[in-house]
Amino acid sequence: MQKTAGRSSKLQRRRSPSSGHHFRRPRKNRCMKMISGYTANGDRLQQLKAFDESKSGVKGIVDKGITKVPPIFVRPPEFCGGDKPNSGHRTRTQFSVPVVDLADTVGQRADVVAGVRRAAETVGFFQVVNHGIPKRVLDEMLAAARGFHELPREVKSEYYSRELLRKVKFGSNFDLYQSRFANWRDSLFCVMSPEPLDPQELPLICRDITMEYSENVHKMGVTLFELLSEALGLKPDHLIGLDCAKGHLVLSHYYPPCPEPELTMGTSKHSDPDFLTILLQDQIGGLQVLYENQWIDVPPVPGALVVNIGDLLQLVSNDRFKSVEHQVLANHAGPRVSIACFFTLHLHPSTRLYGPIKELLSEDRPPVYKETSLKDFIAYYDEKGLDGNSALTYFKCQR
After folding, report:
1. In-domain check, residue 279
2. 324 in any annotated domain
3. Which among 16, 93, 108, 264 could disulfide-bond with 104, CB atoms 3.0 to 4.6 Å apart, if both were Cys?
4. Total structural domains in the chain?
């Protein structure tokens, strides 16, 4: 898309002073005059660079024994509005995230499909039980992720990178230089497919279990895409035929305990730039989904995995399925560990264009979105960062 490419080319000229990562220059805004006693221009950039170049992430700050949240993590006033993101408000009906049981996808398949359809068309989130992944694998994956993030700095720093195409990298805040405030989170990013990842590229402490978990969660993803296809009234292999399950990433997130959690966020409000996300979370909690303009807690359920619809699945389903915004609260407790599996080809070279599935269109249901390549979609998402706005708006058809 020429418009997206144009935006990306402009962005190419704006790079991080230290790493070459794309970023936007800080906007001049009356709400950014002063944040916790320092100006939001040169001083902020210097502090961002110092944090980036430390290669130790948020945990490196916490390990210094801080008692205050550093200014680069403090939410500006316009991000502290009436929604009170750290209040954990529930709806008046005490709505809870749906649970889908995959124990019998043969004998009770129609019921399972109906449950998936209701969840995907309304809240866009559901918890899955009896998914077939052994508890041992879940427990070992969480422990290994925590083990990596708690390695000495000199070991982790070997993996620290902002290189866009690197398959395995450790970092904190992919949008560090364009976001209005940094999130209280570190991540280990692993591209598992479509090209098989060489296990030797993974840190030894989490190597074997990451490969085993990746294989298991990919199988689960294939099952879910079959159910989602049927939920749209299509053949079970339709979404798989669109390469929705062809590529996946595994991100191990680490949220250190925060001395002032009300001032920052674990992860800012966003929706996911993929087809589907499967999340394994520990028992700390903090994940919330936005439903009917209220933040709903997604409490940890032992043995369950959280599934949410991604932006690209909302796009190809022509708004039948909902990619809902969600966030993670910072917390005094911790560390919190979660493992997110994103089903997307990401930046893998592909000429395929994605638009609303033709079988879902009619005179009453015209296309909501323009066609786009994954490369253009990801470029736009990365450019804007976690700014609280949906990337889908940019790709809507003009009416």
Report:
1. yes
2. yes
3. 108
4. 1
